[in-house]
Design a protein that fits this description.
hydrolase, DHH_sf, globular, 338 residues, binds manganese (II) ion, single chain, 12 strands, alpha/beta
């Protein structure tokens, strides 16, 4: 039995992974390029070492289209095919057990669980917790893990690591000095950084434009929210996104958050199967090093049952459109009382 550890130092995780006889890597539900890029990069390293490895996520049933060209997709298996018992289970970019969805039960079938993440709200649910909340992406944490392990970052692995880095930094808007050093190193392997970025972030079907028109046309501004910091929000109703991918829906927050009059932006995304269920994306203007005075949306999201980062977070909630906005306004007011 491994003693529970929690650290930004990769040594304990390296020790477990180097001795692993079989590995399952789990990404979070509604996967993004950071969790999938992390999972596939780790799978490639393990496969190279001769270790049987499966990568999966609980939902949706299929990998988002923008990520299907990532190297290592051959290690992905449908959720129902994930082995019940495994030597080592690794979760990547998951702040809590809940982010594993229906695959959370696989933790019970693993001899050792390793949690690799960069979310400040991470609940340290592994036996070994490699958490670096200063890292800009989970793929950045993995780059340090591979270095400590002595595992080479080849071109295909670099492609996966770059995918997480470019998306989690909003195309390098939110990086520190180390961000660009890592990007430089990954690009030096010969990957097509511009092509990877275009595929992941800058390619949408034509139907995205009328969807944006409807959704942005319904945006509202609450200048008095969060003690005067201001909230801007919009709703994506399920019929707004008919025939569109998650990539189109997830892009809306990046337009809404540019509003000058609000420090906090929210997008309420209605479930396609339950009209009273919403997943909510939050962004704060507090997005860079040394800008610690704005609203911490990780705190707000955690208060509403979710989690995330200081400047980007989310949660799932239930109610009418009016009620879910009211709940958010109440939570924003709470943090501004003292
Ligand atoms: Mn991430």
């Amino acid at each position: 039995m491994t003693a529970v550890t929690s650290s930004a130092d990769p040594a304990a995780a390296v020790e477990v992974l180097a001795a692993a006889r079989s590995v399952t890597v789990l990404c979070h539900v509604q996967p993004d390029a950071d969790t999938v890029g992390s999972g596939l990069a780790l799978a490639q390293v393990l496969h190279r070492r001769g270790v049987p490895v499966q990568v999966s996520f609980a939902e949706p049933a299929e990998l988002p289209a923008s990520m299907r060209s990532l190297p290592g997709v051959e290690y992905l298996v449908p959720a129902e095919q994930v082995a019940a018992r495994v030597d080592v289970l690794v979760t990547v970019d998951c702040g809590s057990v809940g982010r594993l969805g229906a695959l959370a039960d696989r933790i019970d079938g693993a001899a050792t669980t390793v949690v690799i993440d960069h979310h400040r709200s991470n609940t340290r649910f592994g036996d070994v917790n490699l958490i670096d909340e200063t890292a800009e992406s989970t793929t950045s944490v993995l780059a340090r893990l591979f270095d400590a392990w002595g595992e080479e970052i080849d071109r295909d692995i670099a492609h996966c690591l770059f995918a997480g880095l470019v998306t989690d930094t909003g195309c390098f808007r939110w990086g520190g000095p180390g961000t660009h050093l890592l990007a430089d190193r990954l690009l030096a392997t010969g990957i097509d950084g511009a092509g990877i970025t275009r595929t992941l972030m800058d390619t949408h079907p034509f139907g995205w434009l009328p969807m944006l028109s409807r959704v942005l046309g319904s945006a509202r501004l609450e200048p008095r929210a969060a003690g005067g910091a201001g909230l801007v929000y919009a709703f994506v109703y399920s019929d707004d996104s008919d025939g569109l991918r998650s990539e189109e829906v997830e892009s809306v927050i990046d337009v809404v958050r540019t509003t000058a009059e609000a420090d906090v932006a929210a997008v309420f995304k209605q479930s396609r199967t339950d009209a009273g269920c919403w997943t909510v994306s939050l962004r704060s203007r507090d997005s860079g090093v040394g800008t610690g005075d704005a609203v911490d949306v990780a705190r707000v999201a955690t208060g509403l049952g979710g989690g995330g980062h200081r400047y980007a977070a989310g949660y799932t909630t239930h109610g009418t459109a009016e009620n879910v906005v009211g709940d958010l306004l109440a939570e924003l007011a709470l943090g501004r009382e003292s």
